[in-house]
# Entry
Amino acid sequence: MNLQIELKNGVMTAVLRGDLDHHAADRLREQIDDTARKVKPRVLRLDFSGVPFMDSSGIGLILGRVRLVSLWNGRVAVSGLSPQLRRMAELSGIASLASLEEEEKEAVGK
Amino acid sequence: MNLQIELKNGVMTAVLRGDLDHHAADRLREQIDDTARKVKPRVLRLDFSGVPFMDSSGIGLILGRVRLVSLWNGRVAVSGLSPQLRRMAELSGIASLASLEEEEKEAVGK
Amino acid sequence: MKQAVNKMELNFPSRSVNESFARGAVSAFVLGLDPLVTELNDLKTAVSEAVTNAIVHGYRDTIGTVYISAKIFADNRVVVKVRDRGCGIADIEKAMEPLYTTGGEERAGLGFAVMQSFCDRVRVSSAPGRGTTVTLTKQFTARENGE
Amino acid sequence: MKQAVNKMELNFPSRSVNESFARGAVSAFVLGLDPLVTELNDLKTAVSEAVTNAIVHGYRDTIGTVYISAKIFADNRVVVKVRDRGCGIADIEKAMEPLYTTGGEERAGLGFAVMQSFCDRVRVSSAPGRGTTVTLTKQFTARENGE
Ligand SMILES: Nc1ncnc2c1ncn2[C@@H]1O[C@H](COP(=O)(O)OP(=O)(O)O)[C@@H](O)[C@H]1O
Ligand SMILES: Nc1ncnc2c1ncn2[C@@H]1O[C@H](COP(=O)(O)OP(=O)(O)O)[C@@H](O)[C@H]1O
# Structure
């Protein structure tokens, strides 16, 4: 698992790469939270476009970040979910807590 | 494992695709020999460019075909060996029995 | 139940690095069925949930051994058992309720829900102090090319 | 010898379809080392040779169980044992000579030579009628990113 963090206009984007299971989530969480606690971003975007596999530990990772950023009234946006990950997200009902961004715009707008 | 056979001017080319182990070799051998016995090609070319993995069963497959086509004075040409497969081929000394074709020409000639 | 056409048994210590090993091994086992990508991914996901539970809950504060067995039947049905000798589950029905978790903030309480959604059948047998066995059954699509 | 940092045990029936399963499972096990592609491929090749021998020679006219165990040590050394309870080898030295084979026309007699070339160490212990154990040792390169 590999993590890349970008900061821009109060938006912190964490780009995840690799399989996301409990083992990987444990390691990612620490790294994401270290930066998030310092930056206190208005929006924490989690980009899953580089995640080929995810189990419910990924949902736990999202929910934990929703809880964290709510400390400063931030919100979590989730992008880049493949159909498989989207199924997992829908099963979990996280859509009411984090905004699941559709990739349609990107796909259509060339 | 998947096999595609092409015939042209007395040359029979068998294009192999997939991992080549004892299990796969057993299946390929039958299919290659069925056609080879009917066609009796002057040259039997085995194209390994679609083979990501091979163990010594692949060498057995080549040697068995050398033996078969020698029945009608044919020869075996081996092409498309990756560096890993080339190492296996060199270890086996099959170069003296089958011609190992270099891919340089193709690579250079665009 | 008919005899399995293929089977395997596997065990490893309950370290989280082995979650991906367990998925990978089960994947490699069913690859001979030439499975649909989605079906393979469903099984991998369910195995990942069950193995994670053994590691995180079954052997919560200790390292124990996780046991996996898998069978393939002639009709392309795959049965995977994931077993631990850990703490066990007192109330299985409650444990299987979506969102229920004893794992703290970072667990979603969705492991069993995911197994049920991604497999055809999930059976849990458990006894406190003795451990837990989760049996996952998934029907794979018959492919012409399968061996 | 120091204690292993990770280990696994695996068994399956001696059907040739399991040659790729065995390679895949061992691969998945050492993937946590973040191995170099060539080193991983070397180990896969050696495992494939040893497992094929158990299936083709050890259990020549029968189906038996093949046992694999693998250990990873702190210095990134990997030890894989492949064991059968098949016919055994009477003369191990002779069996290990390149090109020697009792397997007929389609075997190259290169299995042991490949294991030796692709691993750092190969140990064979065998007794006629009792079976064979092949122990493969390979040192992997330490990667910064390994876990
Ligand atoms: N192998 C196990 N051993 C002991 N308890 C378990 C085991 N598997 C599940 N449980 C219990 O069932 C609960 C629900 O599990 P699950 O639905 O997978 O969600 P989660 O893993 O996110 O907690 C766990 O929190 C735990 O209390
Ligand atoms: N597990 C085994 N059980 C019994 N005999 C074996 C085993 N492994 C190897 N042998 C013997 O050693 C010989 C040489 O093996 P090897 O070098 O791997 O070449 P090959 O598999 O092509 O015959 C085999 O032909 C067989 O006689």
